[in-house]
Amino acid sequence: MSVVSYEQLRGELAPCVLHEPSDGYAPVPVTERLAQAIWFDQRLKRDGLQTTDGRRVRVVSPGWWNLEAGPDFRRAVIAFDDAKPQLGDVEVHLHSADWHQHGHTRDRHYDNVILHAALWRRGEQPATTATGRALPQLVMADQLDAPLDQLYDSIDPENYPYDLDSHVGACESPLKSASPETIAALLEDAGLARLRTKARRLTRWIQRTGIEQALYMAVMEALGFKHNKEPMRRLAERLPVARLRELPATQAQALLLGVAGFLPERTVAGRDEATRRYVKRLWDVWWKSRDEFAGRSLSRAEWRLAGLRPANLPWRRLAAVAQLLAAHWELWPKIADTLASQPETKRAARLAALLTDLEDSYWSRRFSFASKPQPEPELLIGAARARDIVVNVVLPVAIAQGKLLEQPALVEAAEKLFGDYPPLESNALVRFTAHRLFGQRVPPRLLRTAAQQQGLLQVFHDFCLNDRTACRRCRFPDLALQFAAKQTAC
User: Fold this and answer.
1) Is residue 19 helix, strand or coil?
2) What share of residues in the chain are helix, strand, coil (percent, to 5)?
3) Are 104 and 135 in contact (CB under 8 A)?
C-alpha cells in the first residue's frame, strides 16, 4: 500500500507551480495564494498596465480579500481606458485557463466580477460569467514590478490578509492617537445607532403585521443567516405565524417544509424506518393543505444549500421554528418578562436559552432526510446563533415595542443589556474592519462587547462599504477626530 505524503496531499489541495528563476537558485513553488498577495499589494507596473485585449488598466483599489466563498477580492475599483472607474469583484488564478477549469463560467456567485487576473496565460479561451458577459483578463507575469522569485522571497502568504500592517485604512492614524476609552465610546455609540436603526425597521413591521408576525419574520430571517435570509423571510410572509402557532410541532413542520419546497417524495426507497415514518406523518398533513398554498410555495432553486455546515441547513432551522412555536410561542411575553424582572447577570443567558432549549425527536440527530442518525444530539439552534438572534432581533424588537407601547423602562432595559452583552462570534467583516481601523494592534478593552462589535459593523456599512476612493475621500477619519475632541472636552 503506497503512503501519501503530506506534500502530495497539500499539492492536491493548494496546487503550486515550480518557477525556475533566472539566477540559478532553487525553483520557486508559486501558489495561488502568492498570486493573490501580489494582486493585493499591487506589485505590478502601475503605468502601462494592460489587459490581454490591450485595454489600459488603472487600479484605484484592489478590493477586499474575501476569505469566504466566491471571488477572491470584493468591491475592487478599476478603470479601463478613459472610462469612469467601476466597482466589482476580482478573481485571481495561477493560469488564465483556471477560470473555466474551476467552473466559474456556470457559477452565479461570480457574476459581479469585473476583472480576471492570472499570473500566467494558458489557452486562448475568453473568461465569461454565467450570464455570458466577457471579462477583461490581466496576465500579471509580464507586468510585475520585480522578478517573481524576488517577490516570492519578500512575500509571506501566511501573513495575508490581516497579519500585517499594510492595507490599513486612513482612519488608523487618527485612531492610534485616541485613548482606548475614547475609541470604545465611539464604537459603542455607533453600535447603539445600529441597534436603533434595526428597531425602526422592526417598528414598521410591527405596525404593518402585529408583534407576533413581526417577531416571527425577524427570527426566520435571522435563522437564514446571510445566505438564506431572503427565502426565510419570504416563507414567513407566505406562511404566517397565525397559521402555525396552534399546531403541534410535526404539523407545523409539514407546512413549513412543504411551502419551503423541501418536503421529499413519499415513495423514495432506501430510507431507514424512522425516516419513512416521519415522512409519512408529514405527508398526512401536507396533502390536505397543499392546495391552500398553491402558487405560494418556494422552489429549491431559491435556497442556497451549497457550502453550509450540515447543522445549519434550512430544514433543520425550520424544525427549530416549529418547536419554538409549539413549545412556547409566548416568546414575546417571556422576552418582556425577562428584561423587566430577571437580574441583569441572568438576562443574557435566559434570553438565549429560549432558543437553544429546543429538541426534536427526528431533527436533533439528523442533518437531512438522507443522513444517518448522529450518536449525539446536535442543537437545532446553536449557542452562537442564539446570542446573535438576541442582539439582532430580540433587543431591537423590545425597543420597538417599548416605544410603540410608551414603555421607556423596556427600552432602557434593552439598551442596557445591549451595552453589557458579551461579544458575538467574530466574522470576516468584523476582522476586516478591525484591521482597517487598527491594523494588528487592536487597543485593549475593545471588541469585548456585542455593542462594540456592532459599532464596528456600522462603521463598515456607513463608510467602508460606500467608499470607492481607497480611503482618500472617506469622512470617517475626520469624524473620529471630532468625536475624540468632544470626549476630551467633556
Assistant:
1) strand
2) 55, 10, 35
3) no
Which residues 6+ apart lie within 8 Å of 227 measured at CB? 304, 307, 308
Residue 106: other Cβ atoms inside 10 A: 10
**Distance in angstroms (rounded) separating the CA atoms of residues 53 and 139:** 11
Preceding amide of 444 cis, omega within 30? no
CB atoms within 10 A of CB 310: 12
Buried b (16+ CB within 10 A) or exposed e, 122-148: eeeebbbbeeeeebbbbbbeeeeeeeb
Q: Is 235 exposed, middle or buried (0-12, 13-18, 19+ CB in 10 A)?
A: buried
pTM of the predicted model, to two decimals? 0.81
Residue 215 grid coordinates: 417577531
Percent of the chain predicted with pLDDT > 90: 56
374: left (phi over 0), alpha (psi -120 to 50) or beta: beta
- Rounded to 10 degrees, the C-alpha dihedral 157/309/320/196 comes to 20
Lowest mean pLDDT among 218-232, 295-309, 321-335, 369-383: 321-335
φ and ψ at residue 114, rounded to 5 degrees: -115, -10
Please, which residues bridge with residue 118 across strands?
93, 139
Cell of 54: 490591450
Could you read off the pLDDT of 237-259 as tens digits, one per residue? 999 999 998 899 999 999 999 99
Q: What is the pLDDT of residues 86-100, one digit of tens each?
A: 999 999 999 999 999
Nearest-CA neighbor of 217 among 233, 202, 206? 233
Element (H, E) at 233: helix 229-238
Task: Identify the band that residue 334 occupies on the pLDDT scale cut at 50, 70 and 90.
Answer: low
